[in-house]
Amino acid sequence: MHDSIALGTVEEFEVGKARSVEVGGHRIAIVRIGDDFYAIGDKCSHADYALSEGEVYSQEKELECWKHGSTFSLVTGKPTTLPATRAVPVYDVHVEDGKLWVTIK
Questions:
Q1: Are the CB atoms for 4 and 105 separated by under 8 Å?
Q2: Cis amide linkage into residue 83, ω under 30° from 0
Q3: For the Rieske domain, which residue ranges apply (predicted)?
Q4: Is the dihedral of CA 48, 51, 55, 56 positive or negative?
Q5: What is the CATH number of the domain that holds 8?
Q6: Spacing of C-alpha 97 from chain mean position
Q7: Of 38, 70, 96, 104, which has fewest CB within 10 angstroms of its CB?
Q8: Number of domains in the chain
Q9: Mean pLDDT, residues 3-13
């Protein structure tokens, strides 16, 4: 079963920034790039640091871990630079009636 959970209105999420949310025991970084939204596990796979505190690279669709500099694809969750070598989870997000929803599988 897949549960979709409302996270708030789209206006609550700043363009070009990441924001941490807790959903059903999952810590998730929500990233808004223009009108597109991405949801990625908010824990670096190299060390236990919040990815939501890192820099968003809009052109590359990547999120950087602020501690050691690894970047992760917002689309696949795979690391694109070292030292991280393991992917982090990604989640489906969609907008409906002005609200942002995330799906936990």
A1: no
A2: yes
A3: 5-102
A4: positive
A5: 2.102.10.10
A6: 21
A7: 96
A8: 1
A9: 93
Give the mean model confidence (pLDDT) for residues 43-59.
96
**Residues near 57 by beta carbon (within 8 Å), at least 6 away in sequence:** 63, 64, 71
For residues 63 and 72, is the Cβ–Cβ distance under 8 A? yes
> What tokens does 96 get?
């409906």
At 2, is the pLDDT very low, low, confident or very high (cuts 50, 70, 90)?
low
- The pair of structure tokens assigned to 36 is 């597109």
Assign residue 8 a region (left: φ > 0; alpha: ψ between -120 and 50; beta: otherwise).
left
d(CA 99, CA 78): 27
Residue whose pair of structure tokens reads 């590359």 in the numeric block: 60
Structure tokens at 13: 């999420």
pTM: 0.94
Q: Which of 89, 82, 96 is nearest to 5 (CA)?
A: 96
Domain residues for 87? 3-104
What SS3 class is residue 16?
Answer: coil
Q: Which residue has the tokens 């690279």?
A: 57
Helix, strand or coil, per DSSP, at residue 34? coil
